[in-house]
Amino acid sequence: MSETPRVTRPFAVFEWMIALRYLRAQRSAGFISVIAGFSFLGIMLGVATLIIVMAVMNGFRNELMDKILGLNGHLIVQVYDTPFTDFDEVDATIDAIDGVRLSFPFIEGQAMASSSLGGFGALVRGMRQADLERLGTISDNVLQGTLEGFDEGESVAIGIRLAERLGLRAGDRMTLISPRGAATPFGTTPRIKSYPVAAVFEIGMSEYDGAFVFMPFQEAQAYFNEDGLASGVEVFVDDPDDVDAFRTRLDETIERPIFISDWRQRNATFFSALEVERNVMFLILMLIVLVAALNIISGLIMLVKDKGHDIAILRTMGATRGSIMRVFFITGAAIGVVGTFAGLILGTLVCWNVESIRQGLSRLTGTELFSPELYYLSRLPAEMDGGEVVAVVIMALLLSFLATLYPSWQAARLDPVEALRYE
């Protein structure tokens, strides 16, 4: 009675031993080891670059959203049928709605801010001191001066970049020039008035720090000839993504014709461009990992050619086609797995220290990297998203595994008789 041959279980110890032996550098296969090394570096750098770029894009978007939505309301309520004289009643009605975090009336107009150094366009917003103090984006970021007594005098609060352009500090005087001045028999004359700078703030977004001027509400009404009126009511809600529900509530609650605009409408083009750029960057950088995976294919094909004699001997000793295929699969997959997780570690370390790295490179090169004038923000943000990181790792591993299939299949198909014919 013949003995049934014992079948070796998949991924047995000897398969791992042979596969890992093929990964070690040998004199006869030095060039193959170099290719494996470059494949490892390619996957590591590709994964790290993907993680870093996606984290910076996420941080950039979230930081901009925090700055934009921290200063501008999630919804703005305006009227269009009659002058907005009942703004206090409308504000009280809005403030009583569940889910509204903050609401306040405001006056808004354009003017030119000037000093002895020159003049720059500015967006003047009239607000009450109590509302300005509740707006943490401003009150928590005052660098010079104070908001105390803001309503009592004729003073303004300006952004740090506007202050630097005009050469002003808290306590200095700034001149505002508005085309909406007094009406005379000869036409409307510009309104020119000088104001002391009560406070200088820094939001961290250059576009806002260089353009916004905050003025007491009643003074803004007088300055823009809007006595007893408001431009609108700004509304901040607990969930900015749920503004559609609040639009419905506001329409049902406010008993007069109103016009409502939300943050998505006002910034639709900007955030859509960011989203498109983010997706395109992901696809482009994924090609780096794909190129590294193709290097795994070329390296394994050369390894199969070089190890044809070894494969033939293994087959004559009883190794199955499946065993041979798994040996080369492990060899190629090991490069992909180690490279992917090395890239994950490298990318995570860079994301945690991206601002320090930016500052170090700026000092080293003597240039300002990530200029606030170009990128709006004063620091380089990076926020890793767990789902995106997992997706990058899975895609890199999948490409690495797929890259090993064809060379492994070729190794399994090798005929031992042909391989040993001329030995």
Give a structural overview:
The chain has two domains: 13-65 and 270-420, no CATH class; 82-256, no CATH class. It is 55% helix and 18% strand. It is built from 17 helices and twelve strands. Helix 11 (268-306) runs antiparallel to helix 13, helix 11 runs parallel beside helix 16 and helix 13 runs antiparallel to helix 16.
List the helices and strands and how they pair.
Elements: H1 13-23, H2 30-71, E1 75-79, H3 87-95, E2 100-115, E3 118-127, H4 129-134, H5 136-139, E4 142-145, E5 156-159, H6 160-166, E6 173-178, E7 183-184, E8 187-188, E9 191-201, H7 206-209, E10 212-216, H8 217-223, E11 232-237, H9 243-253, E12 258-262, H10 263-266, H11 268-306, H12 308-316, H13 321-352, H14 354-365, H15 372-375, H16 386-412, H17 416-420
Parallel strand pairs: 3-10, 5-9
Antiparallel strand pairs: 1-11, 1-12, 2-3, 2-6, 2-11, 4-9, 5-10, 6-9, 7-8
Helix pairs in contact: 1-13, 2-11, 2-13, 2-16, 11-13, 11-16, 13-16
Keywords: Cell membrane, Lipoprotein, Membrane, Transmembrane, Transmembrane helix, Transport
Subcellular location: Cell membrane
Family: Belongs to the ABC-4 integral membrane protein family. LolC/E subfamily.
